[in-house]
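Worked example 3 (structure in, sequence out).
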């Protein structure tokens, strides 16, 4: 049994720029970089579709797991919009880099997560966010509005 999915045409990067999930997690105190990276790595490993790789196969495009995820510590004054733009610009379907996490240090620290719709759908994205919140420390993050759309939804430390 093959793990390949087939596409007649490679999805275009321009299409992916519009079709991406973004979530912002907010903490009132410093986020431990080592622990949050370990938590993201745990969630990424449990959700291999986040690293979907697209490659040519028999005159069409095939998708398979096997990519990685991006990590950055951003300058403290950066805006979420600037970080999201950089994350999405770095998405690469051929290497499977379709999931990115950035820490914006400050008061409060913010964790910005973005993923292409090519690797995850909306309901699954919400599950990934929940898994990450639990993997880091469930008591640190909480949702302000559980029904809010994922784009720039915020979570605060209680």
């Amino acid at each position: 049994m093959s793990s390949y999915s087939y596409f007649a045409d490679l999805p275009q990067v321009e299409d992916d720029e519009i079709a991406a999930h973004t979530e912002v997690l907010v903490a009132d105190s410093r986020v431990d970089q080592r622990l949050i990276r370990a938590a993201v790595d745990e969630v990424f490993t449990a959700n291999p579709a986040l690293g979907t790789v697209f490659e040519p196969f028999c005159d069409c495009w095939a998708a398979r797991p096997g990519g990685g995820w991006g990590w950055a510590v951003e300058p403290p004054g950066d805006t979420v919009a600037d970080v999201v733009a950089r994350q999405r610009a770095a998405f690469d379907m051929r290497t499977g880099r379709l999931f990115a996490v950035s820490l914006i240090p400050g008061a409060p620290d913010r964790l910005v997560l973005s993923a292409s719709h090519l690797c995850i759908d909306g309901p699954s994205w919400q599950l990934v966010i929940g898994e990450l919140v639990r993997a880091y420390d469930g008591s640190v993050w909480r949702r302000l509005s559980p029904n809010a759309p994922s784009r720039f939804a915020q979570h605060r430390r209680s």
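Notes: The CA atoms of residues 2 and 41 lie 25 Å apart. The mean pLDDT is 80.
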